[in-house]
Amino acid sequence: MFDLGNSFIGSVERNPHALAIVDGEVRFTYAQWYARISSVVTAFDELGLVPGDHLITVLQNRWEAATIHWACQFAGIVITPINWRSKADEIDYCVENSEAKAIVFEHVSAEAARDSQEAKSRIRIALEDPRGDEVTFATMTERAARSAEPRVGAEAWSVMLYTSGTTAKPKGVPRRQRAERAAAIAHVAQNQYANGERTLGVMPLYHTMGVRSLLAMSLIGGAFICLPRFDVAKALQLIEAEKITNLYLVPTLYHDLIHNDVFARTDISSVRKLGFAGASMTDGLLKELDAAFKPELFVNHYGSSEIYTFTIDQKAPAKPGSAGRAGINQRIRVVKLNAVGPEDFAATNEEGEIIAHLGSDEAFEGYWRRPDANAKSLRQGWYFTGDTGYVDDDGDLFVTGRVDDMIITGGENVSPVEIESCLSLHPAVSEVAVVGLPHERWGKIVAAFIKRRSAVTDQELDQFCRTSGLANFKRPRQYVFVNDIPKSPVGKLLRRKLVAGEFEAEGQQGTAA
């Protein structure tokens, strides 16, 4: 199987003059970009970096970040991207944990990177305004260099992503080049991408969705249009100006796009394919997007950093909530909650834990330096995802949340996602998040946090739930109206913050309720 370096060279040979990457005024064809990548590989050699070394990046989605990603594939260096918002102590942890030999940062992350004690003893590369012994990235890209040839094969490590770490220290997820390429090929096939597609490169390159978009475009001579950080007006401007053909985003970003005043004045006709992942999409948002874009394909992709694809539904609006069926490189099952092993099947329509086969071409092989996490999640050849769901009578998977998010009220298991989808259909509801709050009698009660689009009362929302067919025990017993729903930098809902009271009640500014 091709390593990623040979894969990229193949793309250059097929489409040397095709547009490969755009970032503001920077516009490189595949041939031009290959020359820049080759220069960086040579610079890595001069810095003493060798195959197997880890290189930390603390960067936004810029052409330099994408270039470093590809240069690492040629050089056999394990690119280890982390959130550009990381604090110094978080950088310390990742640098030490990954045993990184170098770190690359830019202006928005420079203060934290320079304050990191662990980073001080590593090679430090600055994109702007280097200090002291820091290396200037510009000098690495401008030198003349021979065309890079791959230093490693498909079995070499490609990338190590860190999980979000919402409940404990982040876990490193190392992935081999063959798994990365297999995932990219599956992404192309399952989203039916054609030659010369253009995608909005806004999902972070420290996130599996961002990496997949980058690699997938290279396979089809497509263009990765960089958007360093999500800005609705800028995203809409790029969609129109660059004739974006496909979008692959988390639901939160789609929500922000279509509810922006500029959306109605933007030419979005070039966008023919929509894909989403990272979280469930409410029924209401699905309908809005389908009506607004009228896409040829609307894909719900369910997966993870550990195993890129679990399931795919290529007609998401036709069956709201369905995550579809196993992807082309996967087998999945739903087993009973607290199952002993992968043979402890849940019945049809019974909620349980979703597990995925580790024999997948896209799968990782275990967490970095975390035998405890491996023992918990990797069992008898299957990955226990920690996600809950069920398979319906048609054989389609429905993802209902996380095992830890399950609300047990009066002895009944209640999934937040079902209630969120119900409430999202009310025209006055802009966003909704459902959690369980402690209650003396019931153990927990179902509470709905609502960001309003227009005036609505809790009594009106309760009546809406009653008439929707939602089971009585699932109806929220408490409604809280908020300014915003707390989310992670990649748009994932942070229920734990709502439970902890870390939110702004409607009308408040800057204080937690």
Automatic annotation (TrEMBL):
Pfam families: AMP-binding (PF00501), AMP-binding_C (PF13193). The keyword Disulfide bond does not apply. One of its GO terms (molecular function) is medium-chain fatty acid-CoA ligase activity. It comes from the Bacteria. Residues 11-368 form the AMP-dependent synthetase/ligase domain. InterPro entries: AMP-bd_C (IPR025110), AMP-bd_C_sf (IPR045851), AMP-dep_synth/lig_dom (IPR000873), ANL_N_sf (IPR042099). GO terms for biological process: fatty acid metabolic process. Belongs to the ATP-dependent AMP-binding enzyme family. PANTHER family: ACYL-COA SYNTHETASE (PTHR43201), MEDIUM-CHAIN ACYL-COA LIGASE ACSF2, MITOCHONDRIAL (PTHR43201:SF5). This is Long-chain fatty acid--CoA ligase. It comes from Undibacter mobilis.
